[in-house]
Write a structure and sequence with these properties.
heterodimer; A: alpha+beta; Alpha-Beta Plaits; Ubiquitin-like (UB roll); B: 94 residues; Immunoglobulin-like; six-stranded antiparallel β-sheet; Similar to stage IV sporulation protein (chain A); transmembrane (chain A)
Chain lengths: 395, 94
Amino acid sequence: MKNEWMYRLSGNLRIRIVGKGLERLLNECTRRGIYIWDVRREGEHSLTCYIFLRDLRHVRIAMRKSGCKLYILERKGAPFWVKASWKNSGIVVGLVVFICIVFLLSNMVWRIEVTGGNAETEHAVRQQLKKIGVERGALQFVVPTPESIQKTIMNNIDTITWIGVEWRGTTLYCQVVEKKQPKQTESHTPQHLVAKKKAVITYMFVEQGQAVVEVHDHVVPGQLLVSGFIGKEGQTEIVPARGQILGETWYKSTVVVPMKTTFYMFTGKKRETHYLRLWSWKIPFFWNDKEQFSQFEKQVDEKTFRFLTWTLPVIYEKVVWREKEVVVREYSYDEAKLAAKQIAREQLKRKLPADATIQGEKVLHEAKENGKVKVEMHYQVIENIAIPQPIIQGD
Amino acid sequence: MIRNWKNKMRQWLTNQMELPADVIVDLPRITMIGHIHIYIENHRGLLLFTDRELRLLLKNGQLLVKGESFSIKTILPEEILLEGKISQVLYLEE
């Protein structure tokens, strides 16, 4: 006997046979190898039974001379389900399309919120975001990671010191911290100008006030340069002293450069593997298996998928191994000296205000010790040395 | 005469070797489960089937099963499984 579920799976029919000599017909059918089950007599000239769909043709052949009639009452089994599901395929397709659309919409950028900056900065940030493809309607999987967005924006917009980028659902939040631009204080309160540091004055331009010192004068910190009191004695007036006083100042810096340095450099070779992570299973689905690197840097990028408000347990992960190698750089004594000078100059430039100029440099001392070159430099710098000092009245 | 002798020979063999009778002699094997199932092997065809009666052709004679609400669960050329409420099983000699 065959298994019960075999009947259910393959297509089967419940049929009614009406006519005379039904027993003879059953015998004929069984002799032909037709499998019949659940035969029930309904009356003198009719019975119902089940047959396989594929046997229907054979039953019809067997019935030819008997003069009986066959009626199909029910159709069951997989072939009929398939047929029925074709009829209902519209619903299924619609459901699948709906889920796809909701999935896509759940992973889109719907809102970009920029807070913390004024309108101008906000516009600049939005423009910059658009340039790297972050705008309303963009898919989140093609959009760069928050870290890289942060980096590009901070590199490209000068007026911000920091930007925090964070995803919250379909909204991208950007928290901007603007640079405090020093206000051009056009001060109108009475003030003197005094020296900021030790210097020799090289140039003076007094807009308002009474100059106290002259060019080539040596000044010390706090020394009065331009007085806020003007006019003849007895008729003095107090004004805010303004002007530009440039002075020659001096800086000393010591730089030590090792003659032999070891550092890592990327060779440009990389190996990538793309994973699909389901809970804790990691399924690699694309990889270029070139070679194993002995020294490498591993970088892991993750992208999550969302459906409505839920985060799906499916995570796309991209792992990149970049090969790196040890590079040993060796300077000769002269090269090291040159490098040291350059470093010193750059360090100084970073320290100085933008309007200062380096006028001259001198090597004070150079020495080679323990494989390192030590250079002591002296710089002459022309810079604005005047700072305002308010005049406090009332005494 | 020869046929009769052959049958006797078979019967003797069956007895001597303790083999099931249905294997050697061409007789039906009937299995009943209570009064709800009857399983008949080695029949020679269906003669009559209603919901109260089943008549089967055997090699010699007929088998008559009587009862109520019969249905044939399975029917194969030499096997039949009947379900229902069985009250009588009769042999009819030719």
